[in-house]
Structure formats: C-alpha cells, structure tokens
User: What shape does this take?
Amino acid sequence: MSTILQVENLTKSFGNKRVVDDISFSVPRGDILGFLGPNGAGKTTSLRIIMGILKADRGRVSFFFNEQPSALDKRRVGYLPEEKGLYEEARVLPNLTYIGVLKGMPPSEARSRAAEWLERVDLQEYASQKFDKLSRGMKQKVQFIASVLHEPEVLVLDEPFAGLDPINQEFFLGIITELQQKGITILFSAHQMNMVEEICDSIVLINKGKQVLSGNLKEIKESYKEYNVSLYFEPGNDPSFLWEDPRVVVNKKEEDYLHLSFQGENDINQLINSITARLTLKEFQVATPPLHDIFINAVKERGEEVEENQPA
Amino acid sequence: MKKINLLNSRKVALWEFNKGIRTPMFLILTFLIPLLIVGIGGLEFFTQELMQTQPVPLAFMDKTGEYSDRINQQFAETNISLELFPGDKAELEQKVWDGDYAGFFIVSRENIEEGFIQVFTEDPRNIPAHRIREPLEKVITDIRLEGWGLTREEIDIATRPLTLQVQPLDEEAAPGTVAEFVAPLALAMILLLSVIFSGQMLMYGVIKEKRNRVVEILLSSISSFELLIGKIMGYGLLSLLQVGIWATAAIFTASRFIDFQELGLNAGIILPPLLIFLLGYFMLSSIFAALGSTMKEAEEGSQAQGLIILIPMIPLFLSGILITNPDALWVQVLTHIPPFIPAMALLRMAATDIPWWEMGTITLALILSTIFFIYIGGRIFSRGILQYDAVGFKDLKKILRKKD
Assistant: This one.
C-alpha cells in the first residue's frame, strides 16, 4: 500500500521545553492511524505542524497526493482541532458553508453538502440555530462536519472523542470507519487508547514528545508474545499447578477467579489444554494485551515514566 | 513570506462584512449616530429659528433726546420689538420685573463716546446680545462719524466691510477652492472615525476568534496573512459603508444650506487624499489586528485601542500649528515618519499644495510602511493568535526575531 503522508524527524520546542522530539512515521493510503499517548505527550503540537499551523524547528512533513512528494494542500486535507469552536453568533449552516468555501468549494455546493451532513447526523432542524445555542455534543458533530464537508483525501482529527458521551463516541467511531471505507485516510489522536484500538490499522505511541512505538497494530500485538488470561472456575478446584509454570505471572487471585499474564508465542494452546483438563471452568477469556498495557510496558522498557496533564 | 492568495482573503472579507453588518454594535453606531447628529443639529437649528422669529420685547431710554427715531428705525427690520420709554429708570425696572419687557438699555452722550451700553434684565439668558449689538453699533458709529462732520457718503465709505481674497501669482491658476481644503480634512476625520470604529470591531473580532478557537479551523484552510488581509478588507468595507451612510446623511442635511457646486469638488481633488486614506487605513488596521492577536481579554483591547487611536489623533492635535506652517521642515519630516504619515499628509494637503515630488516620497513612504506594518502585523498575528494567554513583550521580541 502506498504512503500518503510521511513525517520525518519532527522536532519542536517551546522555550526550553522540547514538546516534540524527533518523531517519524508514515501513513499508508486508506489507513486509519492512531496517534496515541497521554495528555501532554505532544500530539496536538505534532498535528498542528502537520496541518501547517505551527512550524517545526526541525524535520519534514510530506504529502503524496499524486504519489509524488508535495507540500500540504490544505484543500485536500480536513482537520478537526482539539480546541473545538466555530463562530458562536453565526448560524450553523452559514458557519459550515463558510468553512467549505475556504476549503475551495463553491458556496452553493458547500451549503447543500452541509445540509446533507446535518441531516445525516440528525441536526437538520438546528441549521438556522446560532452555534452557541447548541449542546456540547451537537457542537462536536457540527465541527466534525466542518472537517469532512469538502471530502478531503486525508482527515486529521485531534482528540475527536474527548468529552463525548458513550453514545456519541460510538457514533463517531462508526462514521470514521465509514469514511475509511470511502477511501479517506484518517490520522487521529486520542488518549483513550483502549477505546480506539479496534478501529486503528496502525499506531504511533508517543510519550513526553518522544516516539515510543509505531507500526501496524496487528503486527505490534503479535510481536508482543504476551496474553492476558482470565478465568472463573468451580470453588474448590486447585489452580496451583499454574504457578509452577515460569511463563505465568499471576496478576489477581480469588477463590474462584484468576487473572494471569502468559508469555509464550506458540504455547498458548498448551496452557489452554492444561487449564481445561484440570479446572471446571465457568468463564474463560484469552486476549492479547490492550494497547494501554503495551504502551506502559514500552515506556518502562525505555526507562521512562508516563507523565500526563501537561499542555500538548 | 509565502505567496498570498487574495481570493482567500476576499472570501474572508465577504464573511466578515456579512457577519459584521448584522451585529447590533454596527447597526447602532451606523444609524444612531447620524440620527443623533441630525437630531441635535436639527434641534439647535429649530431652536435658533424659533429664537430668531420670536420677537424680544425691549425698551430704551434716550437721554440725548435726539436719536430715538434713528435707533427705532435701525431695529425696525429685526425681531427685537423696541420701544422708547418716556418714564424714569425705576419705573422701567419695575416693568421688567413685571414681565412687560425682557430688558432695557439707556443711551446717553457718555455711552456714545465711551462705546459702552448696558442692557438691564431679569434673566440674561433672555437677551440675544449679538442681535442687539449689531444695529446699535451701526447707529452709534454713524452718530460719532457725523459728529466729525462726515457726509452720508463718506460714512458709507468709511464703514464699508473688507473683503480679502487670496490670489495665486500665476494669473491662469484658479484660486483655491473650498473642496481643496475640505476634502483632505474630511478624509482625515473619516480616517480617525474608521480607525476608531472598524479598528475596534476588528480587534475585538480577533480576540473573540482567539478565545473561541475558531482560528485553528481557519488556519487549517488558509494562511494567517490571507486571514489578516481578509479581515482588514472586510472591516474596511464595513467602515466605508458606515462612513458612506454618515456622509450621505450629512450631505443630505447640508445640501439644504450649501450649494455643493460652489465647492469645486472633482476627481483630481478627491483621488490623492483618498489614496493616502486607503493606505493609511490598511496600515493602522494591521496594527489593530496584530494587537488583538496578542490579547487574551477584550478589556486589554480597549486600553490598547486608546493608544492606537492616538496615532491619527496626534497630528490632529497639532492641526492648528500644522495648518499655519504646512511647509515647515519638522512638518515635512513628520509627514514621512510612520505611523503618522496618513494623518499628517491629509492635514497638510488641506493646508497647502504639496509639490508633486514630495507627494511621491510621501506615497512611497506610506506604501513601504503599510507593507512593513502588514508584514509585522501578520507575523505577530500568526503566532499570537494561537497562544492561549496574552503575548508579552518577551514573546513579541521572539516572534519578531524568529526566522520563518
């Protein structure tokens, strides 16, 4: 699959603080890439540099709209900033039309497409409302429309799920997946890693401005060679045979419940067989570790700490 | 600086214009001010009309016994209803207290010689002094001159008023028209008003966009320079519309009293000051927008706005000296120093004919400083607009030093 966006050695400091430190990654055309990390990791600054809003101190951002490297063409990229906002006193439809026009759409087309999108997200009756009269969730939907109205080839979403209730989170996850199916490449940032990992094709994990891990999500998980196992069994069963196995780490133990970590690539079937042979199971689950755990481990392996709640 | 797509700026300008024209602030300022001007002007006019048409009952005592007829005759065509009072002063005072007369005066030989007459009244506000002085002065001057043995004809010659006309040495050159004085002066005033009103709206608009973070969406679509130029153009259009409405209201009202053809208004008189005005507007607006982008709250904006308004106002404060010495060296130098160029140039154009070579250097200095201020304003705007807090002097220094 060809690359549509390539980021090389991106570095940016504010004063003496380096907020983005030598970040490099590429986004395959048509993929969803999750740019993940805790609050204050440098995600927003990186995305602003990619969008040409901020200038990097060092490094390069290249787009490959026509397979050849080119500078950012703002009309072919959609952007949903972390700090959401449109003109508060202006009505919803003119607000969206204006953004569409700035992205190069003829006013009539921008207006009709904005109306279609409002209908699509069930906000058609709010088209003539002033933006500041909408609820937070509604505002987020309108803002999202502003980023996709001109049918961009690349969509950059900065924390699209922040502040949304679970229903709206599901709604946006659905729309993002749908846009990918239409061929749009999506790069989004998020700090809720477990929530978004199901839609990502690839990820870039960053912490304190530094890249911790990046690549195809499936490959990263497979390379991790660790499984989380949780099981409920009949009280009175004896699971002690499990801790004789050096590959098993017991995370939590109760009379009828165990949560284990198992390290071993091809031996998971052997472990499952021995458990089912010796214990009467009520519930049993084997899963690769969640993204959050992979992130924590990767940070620890680098001898660093996860630091949150600093401005990005 | 990257290439600027003026088409994007045009889109921003149209949006700002359409948005701004609907704001209550614009509507109130645009329509309430002309209404107030017309209302107050009209009130004053009608009050004066009323005062002039309403007769003022006045009495006088002629201690000379000779001039009462001449005095009455002189007041005949005025709206002072003057009567000769034959009684004594105490009686006349009582009549004034009773309201029969608004006041009275006494004419004696001493009064005529000293040129000093007192009007006695219960309330001085009821006495139109200038309307009494004029006819009375005429009579007294005549009496004095007759006393020196002058004939009627000699008196007319001696009291004929002076007409002063300024005529250029070049006989073919037309004498200066009123429009040559009025057009640049009016544009200097309009520049001040435009900077006050549209500059204020522009700055608050920028502060608001910064606060509600819509700016990030805008900058993901167009460059900060395109946004800045679009904003200046949009608010400039609003300002021109506003001033146009005011001017129309003013001309409509003034046309009832002035013949505009006599002013000698033509394109040659209007265009040079108009060019200075437009460039000056762009220059001062870019400073407003840049300042707005450095601020966090509107309150800071209102304080900074006061400073910017001072820029076109400083030459206006100096206008008295400036108009009497328009070609002094310090005036010529100050006309080339930004940000005073536009207001200085307009005031000088009102006071004198600036030579063509100097008009060239002034225009060049204005174009260069306008480009400079837009560039510097754009740099501050592009960096300050994304900053959450107010931009301090340290930040400003960094912004201006940093290479793109």
About this structure: Residues 3-221 of chain A form a domain with the Rossmann fold fold (CATH 3.40.50.300). DSSP finds nine helices and 13 strands in chain A. Residues 97 and 116 of chain A are 12 Å apart (CA to CA). The longest helix of chain A spans residues 166-181.
